[in-house]
Amino acid sequence: MNHTPTLVETQVLPVERPFRFESGDILPRIDIAYETYGRLNERRDNAVLIEHALSGDAHAAFYHRGDRKPGWWDCMIGPGKAFDTDRYFVICSNVIGGCRGTSGPASIDPATGRPYGLTFPPLSVRDMVEVQRVLLRHLGIDRLKCIAGGSMGGMQALQFFCDYPFQFESFICIASSMKHSAQQIAFNEVGRRAIMADPRWNDGNYYDGVPPEGGLSVARMIGHITYLSEKMMQEKFGRLKKDKESRAIFRPSFEVEHYLDYQGISFVKRFDANSYLYITNAIDNFDLKTSLSSRDRFRGEGRQRGAHLDDMRGKRGLVISFSSDWLYPPSQSKEIVQLFSAFNVQVSYTEIATEHGHDAFLTDYARPSEIIRGFLSSLS
Asked: Residue 301 and residue 299: Cα distance in Å, rounded?
């Protein structure tokens, strides 16, 4: 039976007032791109905030007109799915510093009429959270049923929940970490160096010409190597060759080389190199424990002083990891469980057996869907 796909549009909220970053820098205005799915009930207490990963955006589910593929987490969001849009009002926004509708380095600086480039303020995960608070106020939502995300999305969920626990009943953190290890930072740094070594990067001033596609493509290839497990790559590609008759040297010939080539080329068509630099730097500097030890918050738009950790008491959390994820291994998820348990958050933990590596949070949806449905149904 053919079903007519559900169509959605990304909306953009123009915020015509200054936004202050954690660094102290201020932008005179920002845009926030977001999508919503389902309906907000009369009590306004059925909202779920979805956080996207590094290369994600606000388009988490359903279809845009003309799309061949749905949003990046369509397998998890929709009627009867893990985040059931017949029950919940689901929200997803593009992060600050991004390039898919929310203000970032490619946005126009009203003072110069040119893209910000590297004059865009330094970015933190907390800045991503504060922009989302602006959006929630616009939507008239003071309290959420749950905040959920995987990978970088999990970091945002943890930061938001810790800074403003009174706004949430629960959090769901999937395949993520409280802080990057030296190895995780190293992979991101190699990707950044690839971009900055591209002559077309031009110190971030490439918007009038050809962007640093070569460098960004290599950065994406490096990322994809970390997203798959070794066993998965061996089963999927092995040592198969695509161009068996070609005698050209140093040209992609193995199937895995062509796969990485495709990922790199497709990525540069939709992502900004400077955004990649800013966002990876933000997640490398994310450290939840250090954030919690500092009781002060910046005074100003959307900020308050000294969110009380006691507000976490009795709240609910769900942490999910994947056995073959070597980018964000289960050991890092267990550290999250230990931390929140110490704050008397009722945390459930599941490690799911899979060979799909880190990408499992996007592809292995059957078991996580079952777990998440049960968790959300158990909330008050």
From this structure: 7
Please write the tens of the pLDDT for every residue from 297-352.
443 344 443 446 778 889 999 999 999 999 999 999 999 999 999 999 999 999 99
> Which of 179-203 are b and which e, b meaning 16 or more Cβ less than 10 Å from the residue's Cβ?
bbeeebbebbeebbebbbebeebbe
Superfamily name with CATH number, domain 11-179+286-377: Alpha/Beta hydrolase fold, catalytic domain (3.40.50.1820)
Do residues 72 and 10 make contact, with C-beta atoms less than 8 angstroms apart? no
Q: pTM score, two decimals?
A: 0.93
Nearest to 28 by CA among 122, 126, 103: 103
pLDDT digits (tens, 9 = 90+) for 258-282: 889 989 999 999 999 999 999 999 9
Where are the domains positioned within the chain? 11-179+286-377, 184-280
List C-alpha distances in Å: 101 to 32, 69, 117, 256: 7, 19, 16, 32
Please give the positions annotated as active site.
151, 325, 358
Are the C-beta atoms of 153 and 52 separated by less than 8 Å?
yes
Count of beta carbons in the 10 Å neighbourhood of residue 375: 20
CA 157 to chain centre: 10
Question: What CATH architecture is 184-280?
Answer: Orthogonal Bundle (1.10)
SS3 238: coil
Residues sharing a CB contact under 8 Å with residue 377, sequence separation 6 or more, in sequence order: none
Q: Would you state the pLDDT for residue 66? A: 92
> How far apart, in whole angstroms, are the C-alpha atoms of residue 75 and residue 80?
11
Helix, strand, or coil (residue 139) = helix
